[in-house]
Amino acid sequence: MMEARLIVLVAFISPFRRERELARELIGKNNFSEVYVDTPLDTCESRDPKGLYKKARSGSLPNMTGIGSPYERPLAPDIAVHGAGTPIEESVKAIASLLLPKG
């Protein structure tokens, strides 16, 4: 897809920095952009359609990221947007300006 100059968006559950570094190494640093959607845990819990956070809080899902398993915030993402309080259109515009060619 890179040869076809397509932009591919992939959402990974990658709570550890080393996993994200590995993805950047595999894809190539010139073809990889780390987008960090910075969202407070309470907002994630309130938007949980599958009830995963509720299960984690009850103990039936012990390794849920952010509850029973740590999340390592990115140290230097290519872009960070705020998942609470920022209109989604504004976040999309910021991400698009990073990914889309100028002109």
What does this structure look like?
The chain is mainly alpha-helical and 103 residues long. It has one domain (17-99): P-loop containing nucleotide triphosphate hydrolases (Rossmann fold, 3-Layer(aba) Sandwich). The chain is 35% helix and 8% strand. It has four helices and two strands; from the N terminus they run αβααβα. It has helices at residues 17-27, 41-46, 52-58, 88-99; strands spanning 35-38, 79-82. The protein has a two-stranded parallel sheet with strand order 1-2. The longest helix has 12 residues, at 88-99.
Outline:
By secondary structure, this protein is mainly alpha-helical. The protein has four helices and two strands, in the order H-E-H-H-E-H. It comes from Rhizobium tibeticum.
User: How many extended strands?
Assistant: 2
Mean pLDDT: 91
**Largest beta-sheet characterization:** 2 strands, parallel
CATH architecture: 3-Layer(aba) Sandwich
Number of helices: 4
Question: What would you call the structural class?
Answer: mainly alpha
Question: Which shape, going by the Cα principal axes?
Answer: globular
What percent of residues are in strands?
Answer: 5-15%
User: How many domain modules?
Assistant: 1
Radius of gyration: 16 Å
Assigned CATH class: Alpha Beta
Helical fraction? 25-40%
Trace the largest sheet across and list its strands. 1-2
